[in-house]
Amino acid sequence: MPEQGSTLRSLRQSFRNIAISSQADAGLVVARPVVPDADTAEILDEFGDTTIIEAVRQFLVINRWPLIPGGKTGFEPSVWRVSPSHELWLPLVHQDQAVGLLFLAYQAPRQWTGELQRQIMRALDDLTVDVALWRSHVESQIFRGLVAQSQDGIALMDDQGRIVYANSVHRRLKSRLGDGVSARRPGWERETLTPFIENGQTRWLHNRFFPVVLPDGLVYQAVIQRDVTESRQLMQQVEQSNRDLRAMNEQLEKAQVARQTFLTMVTHELKTPLHLMMGALDTVKRLRWDSPEEIWTILQDSAKQLELLIDDLLTVTRLQTGSLAVLREPVDIVREVEQCVLCWKGTDPRLEYEPPTQDVPVVAGDARRLRQILDNVIGNGLAYCQNRVSVRVGRDRQAIVVTVSDDGPGIPEADRTRIFEPFYRGTGARPGGMGLGLAVAKGLAEAQGGRLMVTSSAAGSSFQLILPYRPKRRRTVRYRWAAYGAFRLPDRMEEINA
Questions:
Q1: Domain total in the chain
Q2: How far is it, in rounded angstroms, from Cα 409 to Cα 427?
Q3: Residues 188, 221: contact at Cβ < 8 Å?
Q4: Residues 88-137: pLDDT tens digits?
Q5: Fewest CB within a 10 Å sphere: which of 76, 277, 304, 445?
Q6: CA dihedral (472, 476, 477, 479) positive or negative
Q7: Residue 311 in domain
Q8: Residue 426: CB partners within 8 Å, gap ≥ 6?
Q9: 122 occurs within a structural domain
């Protein structure tokens, strides 16, 4: 490609030659190459007398651009425009495109002889070639400027895979990735995604390969590269947000189902003991038994069942609203366990108690809430055991451990992480209950600075209530219910248990 200075000098020299050979005052206007289809020409450059140039500009405005559709040549009227004042307008046509307009003005009428026509045509051909070269140079400069300023990597390769042009972005990427990102067979059209490391972070490069076919049939391979790390991350964030929204929708749907199930269970569970009590009282009224011990037992058991259900519901409500008060006072945990076992053993002989083999100190807690924990855990074990449920109390250096073990079928692995969720009833759940017992027990244990844990196998399940045993002065602390039965313990709990 000729340099800009030499191309411009050649163009000006050709213009002077045609002006001298035609013995006319002359003006030349070259159209801007980027708008060949515009309604009026945008001037790329102009030569000649300023008065003549202004006349050429006015001519372009009146006659619109391009002047010669189809690129005709010769002295046809549509090509040569002669005005009454002896002016000649000559379009410059290159590859069927009007690239400029030459204006010749004569002081007197001229005879358009064959020799004069041939002379002007030769000069016009030379001028047209120079204008085409000039336009090509301008187009090349525009292209190179755009490519150089592009934020994308751009390269052009020949049929041997050699790079014939590359901007600075492509060269920078090539220094990191090697030749693999640009070595492609000409004619291929494909897209790839390539990872690379920059400043210790993985980034992603999108490569688009496509052929560039020149008019002479020569095929080059072009590649456009773009760093899509941010857009890829944004897309991943959008996908994650969509997954989160779907998960939230599923949770909302499950919550709706759980709400309906809860209402059904509450109605059933509260009505069952009431119906038993009402039936027993009706039997007493009808039969007038002298020794209604059996009836009193039914009434007592039903009343206890009703009390436990209502107690769990009230506890859940208070935990959710943050209004649950937990006392911090010395509690003889062995005594509480023995009394609880005694009450349950009167109704179910499968319950066994193993007395501690060492001294067990008092704990700082709420005796009523500890009994509620024990009732819920023991009741759960009796509901699922085959032959026995054992309760034992032990201690280590920092905590007291109350263990409730059963010989039931065990807890499925999929349910072990959810059995402490409120209203959750796992696979193979027994009839009865609202799924609150274990959730309430875990919440009350954590509210008193302890933990409730479970281990399970095919031979049965074992729940461990772990309580610190450093009693402090009586104190009331409030706790708030968190998602799925977890509790937020205040920072001052460490001071209470210290």
A1: 4
A2: 11
A3: yes
A4: 667 777 776 666 667 666 656 666 666 767 777 777 777 777 777 777 77
A5: 76
A6: positive
A7: no
A8: 411, 412, 414, 415, 418, 419
A9: yes
